Amino acid sequence: MVGRLAGKNAIITGAAGGIGLETAILFLREGASVLLTDISEAGLQKALEKAIELGQKASNSRLETKVVDVSKESDVEGAVSHLDSWGGVDIMFNNAGIMHPNDGTELETSEKIWDLTMNINVKGVWYGSKHAVNSLRKHGKRSGSIINTASMVSLVGAATPQVAYTASKGAVLALTRELAILHAREGYRFNSLCPGPLNTPLLQDWLGDDKEKRFRREVHFPMGRFGESIEQAHAVVFLASDESSFVNATDFVVDGGMTKAYVTPLGPATDSPRNLAS
Ligand SMILES: NC(=O)c1ccc[n+]([C@@H]2O[C@H](COP(=O)([O-])OP(=O)(O)OC[C@H]3O[C@@H](n4cnc5c(N)ncnc54)[C@H](O)[C@@H]3O)[C@@H](O)[C@H]2O)c1
Questions:
Q1: Which residues are catalytic, by number?
Q2: For residue 70, which of 142, 199, 168 has the smallest C-alpha distance?
């Protein structure tokens, strides 16, 4: 099969929905073998059904699932070693993350929420990066792509704070940059994906139907709308593929221009593309 990711083996964390699932479907369409991982077994089952239905998987590629809590190193290591029989990891998409409803200002946020957020959003990315490098070396790979999901909140401040989340995503950015430089001559690229606010449950459930909460955000959107997961997934395919062979250590921002905007336009929002799975 000819595809932009033909012959590559990929692991996606947080693959049960949102960015992770849209990416999985595109990866399959581009010829990759994919291990979908998530903490939610039920979510993974549904995601697998969607990926089979929509992924147009090549006959010689694989599609499997594994329950993984990214805050547990043994789980992450297990997912990576699961790919040994496939020929090792080529693409690691460390995407799982949480934004806890009890995360707020520095005064409101409890140590428990801080630690939970850091364990998933930062340690999870560390474990994923570390074991991906181990696998790349073990299998003698001359190239590999690790993509770590950060956020636009790692680039701009907000007066609607979630300090643990923001600090965690800042750590992802710095960690990714350092690893990118460290491993550059091995051919192992590391890039951060920095999504703008999206139309996924992670954010939309939190915003609910609170009009003021929504308005405070929407006024900053140059394109007048939230982003869709598929728009992130297309960027991830590029970062995962050899087309981005000279793209390393970037804060790859996919936010409709939000982090570059001062005064945003008036008028109706642009049309959103449709996600594949939802
Ligand atoms: N939605 C947004 O507006 C937005 C903006 C910027 C960055 N992000 C980031 O994008 C990533 C994906 O989020 P999404 O918007 O697709 O949301 P999502 O909630 O649809 O996806 C997150 C997935 O991570 C899984 N997960 C949670 N804890 C886990 C753990 N400990 N181990 C393994 N999996 C776990 C969840 O079950 C879920 O399937 C996250 O890192 C998030 O912080 C999202």
A1: 165
A2: 168
